[in-house]
Amino acid sequence: MKFQDFIESGKVRKRNPDIQLAKALAKMSGNNLAILRSMEIIDTNASFMMSAYYDALRQLLEAMAVEKGYKIYSHEAYTYFLKNVLNEDTASIKFDRFRKIRNKINYYGKPVDKETVKSCKGDVIKLVDYLKKKFKPA
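The chain above was modelled as a monomer; its predicted structure follows.
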């Protein structure tokens, strides 16, 4: 599958780039991540925290997509946005791993243990920091 397939299916739409929206989304992603970093991961909030870390990452990707002129309606499409548009194969694999964990939580009611979340937390933060360096809206 390729990013173009999502465009053709309507799960991604081309739009005018919106720099102000991109900056606002990136800022919200950073704010959300800052809140998450201040929270302790425990057994009772592990699944929530995993979903929230994923959402902070996805929100940064949404900012990057908006800046490039795309509106993405599919979480899976972000994987191919990373791979085919940003040419970030490794980042796309990591993102897709987080997406699948989040999907198990949100769509199948499968909880995740706090050790998995603690491991993913570090990886999400590293990925966000890496992507922020590439995100330079005008």
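The two ends are 31 Å apart (CA to CA).
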